Amino acid sequence: MTADRWVLVEKGSLATGARIVLDQLESRHLAATLRLRPGDQVTLCDGCGETAEAVLEVVDARRCEVEVVAVAQPPGDRPPRIAVGLGVLHSQAMDWAVQKCVETGVAVLIPLLLERSQLGARAAEGRREHWRRVAMQALKQCRRLWQMEIARPQGLEQLLSDMDDAAGLVADPAGRPLGEHRGPLPGMLVVGPEGGLAPREQQLLAAAGWPSVRLGRWVLRAETAAIVGAAMLMAAHEARGRG
Q1: Where in the chain is the domain with CATH 2.40.240.20?
Q2: What is the DSSP string of 85-117?
Q3: What is the pLDDT of residue 242?
Q4: Are the C-beta atoms of 27 and 63 separated by less than 8 Å?
């Protein structure tokens, strides 16, 4: 594949022989940044597991067009489905967490509206589309085939209701190491915002049967804990899958 020429396209648009008009962001990147020309090859990705080789037919910073040459078969094995509920952070930290969750392989990122979250419900909902764009660009950078879902910002009560009595894990420096967790391994991790979970939130999760897990020797920043925890949880799922 053309490693430095991944292009994002709409879901369902990949078919051999199809002619696709790229959006302005992708067109500008190919025409102005990479300075490609008609006849150059690119790799298309729809974020749903499919890629395709394509040839540039029209190159313009406002509107590039490609023709699909061959669609690749999606791989048969998908990574474990890991979800992270992260207390909403300030802009730079939240963007970083979104990027790295994509690179780590997180399937769903749930922005949590907690007592110590750094944005309110309205502001967080207003940032959701921005986080989605950040996630899609991170997908292209790391060559991931499946996009990460950005769920609607929600409170802890809504999250617990949506889980339908299924328990997840809670990142907590006072918890037990993840390796000591026994029984079915959850695919959901909750990480509090800067300052951690409030006592009422800790009690709510404990009452729902969510164990606390320690992610290392030291206290981590919230955005770091989300990435480290996701990577550890994914590795644990993969290890059990091989066992």
Answers
A1: 6-72
A2: EEE---HHHHHHHHHHHHHHT-SEEEEE--TT-
A3: 61
A4: yes
Nearest alpha-carbon partner for 158 in 199, 110, 202: 110
Half-sphere exposure of 162 (CA within 13 A, CB side): 13
Q: How far apart are alpha carbons 126 and 138 in whole angstroms?
A: 20
For 196, the token pair is 């951690």
Dihedral of alpha carbons 211, 215, 217, 222, sign: negative
Which CATH code fits 83-242? 3.40.1280.10
| pLDDT averaged per 10 residues in sequence order, the chain, 243 residues | 75 93 93 94 92 96 96 81 96 96 97 95 96 93 92 96 90 92 91 95 96 93 97 91 61
pLDDT of residue 1: 45
Amino acid identity of residue 8, one-letter, is L
How distant is the alpha carbon of residue 192 from its chain centre?
A: 17
pLDDT of 239 reads 86
CB 116 within 8 A of CB 194: yes
The amino acid that residue 33 corresponds to is T
Whether the CB-CB separation of 69 and 53 falls below 8 Å is answered with yes
Token readout for 48 is 């749903």
CATH number of 6-72: 2.40.240.20
pTM of the model: 0.89
**Residue 80 contacts residue 104 (beta carbons within 8 Å):** no
Locate CATH 3.40.1280.10 in the chain.
83-242
How far apart, in whole angstroms, are the C-alpha atoms of residue 82 and residue 232?
Answer: 10
- Cα–Cα nearest to 30, from 70, 71, 62: 62
